[in-house]
Amino acid sequence: MNLRKNKWIALSLTILVFIGLKEPASAQQNNKKALLWEISGNGLKESSYLFGTYHLLTDSYLAETPEINLPFKNAKGVVVEMVIDSSKLQSMGMMAIMPDRKISDLISPEDFKLVSSELESLMGVNLKMMDQLKPMSVMVIMTLMYSQKLNEATLKKYPGLPMDYHFAAAGKKAGKIITPLETMEEQLNLLYNHLPVQEQANQLVSFVKQKELAAKMQVDLNTYYLAKDLEKLYSMLKEMPEELGASDYMLKDRNVKWMSTLPDLMKNGSQFIAVGALHLAGPDGLITLLQQQGYKVEPVIK
Fold first, then answer.
1. Which of 5, 31, 100, 108 lies at 20 to 30 Å from 86 by C-alpha?
2. How many domains does the chain have?
3. What backbone torsions phi and psi does residue 272 show, to the nearest 5 degrees?
4. How far is CA 33 from the centre of its chain?
5. Distant-in-sequence, close-in-space partners of 172: CB < 8 Å, separation ≥ 6
6. d(CA 176, CA 172)
7. 36 has a pLDDT exceeding 50
8. SS3 for 196?
9. In terms of Cα–Cα distance, which of 69, 25, 2 is closest to 300?
């Protein structure tokens, strides 16, 4: 396996929260159209702010969200999902590989041919060239290709650095305290090792057999995010077929874990918290979890 393909591993970090997602419906919805939310009350001396990012959009899009400028400037710290350490990309890339297994051993010849055909149509690469990648990695690559092709006009409109990287880099340059909620190892282990490779392979086949839905999801993600509509993002997740992957471990469990960290950070001064927008939405989203702990969480609308 050519480890120069590590660019796909780096990109997979940004797509982490956008694949295999489905959460149960219920509870209170926060249906105001906003990506930035002010957190106050519950003993806080100054407000913190929660911003939902879209990992495939870049920092140039932020010119259209001027409401973030003052909160980011005044924040003592910046909180992000993780900080990419480029020196570790090659070693982390090994987590995407199955040294002793092959995808062709995990699925039928007919399904292998089906997945290979779709991969070739997307990027001109036969699945045999990726046979020792974990199936989840192939799903990540295909998801990125769908998004890049179907949202080409939007992505070209906003050149620059990925949003999440921008906030960490700009915060560091401004002398702010940067707090990652997870390490690279934790995120990649969640992505590549949480599910057995056989289950990953089954999901890969289901993903390709429902490629129209997978592709539509990428368009909808882009559309609803640009509309700042968290309610529609959440509704989209509820409509996903179960066989494409349950996601408590991707969203709900991580949100609960993060809530053990965020209150202490906010007590120490204003924080600008930038995480994937899907982590904000729904009854298990950060907005609702913060409200349940007694915080006042309100949309900031320009």
1. 100
2. 1
3. -105, 110
4. 20
5. 78, 178
6. 5
7. yes
8. coil
9. 69
CA distances from 196 to 18, 26, 202, 203, 285 (A): 19, 29, 10, 11, 27
Report which DSSP code applies to 228. Answer: T
Tokens found for residue 247: 């996601």
Ramachandran quadrant class, 180 (left: phi over 0; alpha: psi -120 to 50; beta: rest):
beta
Note the pTM of the prediction, 2 decimals.
0.88
Would you tell me the crossing angle of helices 135-150 and 6-15 to the nearest 10 degrees?
Answer: 80
Pairwise CA distance, residues 82 & 182, whole Å: 5
Question: Among the residues of the chain, which ranges form H helices?
Answer: 6-15, 69-74, 89-93, 103-106, 109-123, 135-150, 152-157, 163-173, 184-193, 197-209, 211-226, 230-238, 252-258, 262-267, 286-292
- The listed range with the strongest mean pLDDT (9-18, 20-29, 234-243) is 234-243
CA-to-CA separations, 164 to 15, 84, 93, 168, in angstroms, rounded: 12, 10, 20, 7
- Expressed as residue numbers, the domain containing 48 is 3-299
**What are the structure tokens assigned to 85, written together?**
């350490």
CA distance 12 to 54: 13
pLDDT beyond 80 at 224: yes
Per the listing, tokens 């991707």 go with: 250
